[in-house]
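Exam revision sheet. Question 4 asks you to relate a sequence to its structure. Input first:
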Amino acid sequence: MTTYSITYPPKPKADRADLPPGPPELPIVGQSFRYIRNPVGLMQEAATYGDLATMSVKPALAYLASHPDLIRQLFVDNHRSVGRGRMTLTLQYLMGMGLVTADGPLHLRQRRLMQPQFHHRRIESYGEIMTDFTLRHQQRWQDGDRIDLAAEMSELTLHVVVKTLFDLDLPDTVRRIGAAFELSNDYIKSRDNQPPAARRLFHRLPLPFTRRFKRGLAYLDATVYDLIEQRRETGLDGNDLLSLLLNVRDDEAENPEDAVMTDQQVRDEVITLFAAGHETTAVALTWTWYLLATHPDVQAGFHAELDDVIGDRAPTLDDLPNLALTDQILTESMRLYPPIWSTGRMTFEPIELDGWHIPAGAAVVAPQFIVHRDARWFEDPLEFRPDRWTPEFRENLPRFAYYPFGGGPRLCIGEGFAWMEAKLLLAVLGQRWRMRHDAGHKIELQPLVSLRPKGGMPMHLERRK
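Answer key, structure tokens:
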């Protein structure tokens, strides 16, 4: 069995005079405390210093790239010289070495093996599951109810992803899986804000938060490994993603043992798919409903399109190409509130960006939240304008002025799945319900792994006649 390993370059040291300009920093700690308190605000300020700026988030040397050409160079032109590196060490506590965290030959191999499982013809088989679960979920809603839409979308997408990944529909099991992932999300963000030495120490110590995380992780591991054992014993003939991954064969493997994924690799990949697919889709739907609720004219057009294209029947995949406004609404929502609000790469080798030398071991951050709101690419960038997304506008937009799913060889493998799920869920719920945002609720951002609304998203439900 081939062992995959990668050595990270040492953390670079650089003279401030040799770095791009950036916000002022404190001795020793740099901008670390500002980043912990308000990472979005720090990045917004850094972007005012130029398309490539320095963010001294000690002990890391971090650059911020906010121009589409620089992001293309980072993600595509220099993809062999960069990776995720130390930027995902905390995520490895949960995901192990899945697609999001793996680098080098392991990432290339796993991507090659998994890509066919996300071909549009394969994922289309999940459309009926998405529609059915949404119809079931909304049955408990009542006209005039005040709900936390963020929690509702999280629960709905949780059931969808557990069904499509594991073919499970047991309420107690689904609830426990969701609780373990929610705790993991909070734990990872908490540890990610700590200096590396403190992070490693606190992760080893039997602290209450760490013990709760490890108990939840143990439950997830036991559940996944039990399901893997069951699938292997029953012939691997299911259509859930877990069964498909267990059936994968690597035709390029030199050794027979390397032709299949190990149980550990399968575990890491399904945990990664769960974490990426559940959280991001729920967040995207939450922000989309918020924008619809606060723009009644757009919501009225959305409902009119659903009535015209679908009527009273359940939506199907064949309807999606005809829901042009729905597509524009979701696209514009993820421009203003990208679920993954910032991404980046660590340099394994020196590269050059915008005329600046970037040493090996540096972090280069490419925040979607900043680039998607740049007036150079989007007129009235803070306005919710779905009608901007005409075919002509899309054609003329720089490739990396809009990248909610990342780009290059690390483009999100589940992009097609996410678009399909979000559109179907919007259509099913939009047929029956009109959303009214609670006027007393103040919108605040909570930039964790994904861009959540702080304090949830209170909405009043109004049944459509």
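Marking note for examiners. The chain has one domain: 16-463.
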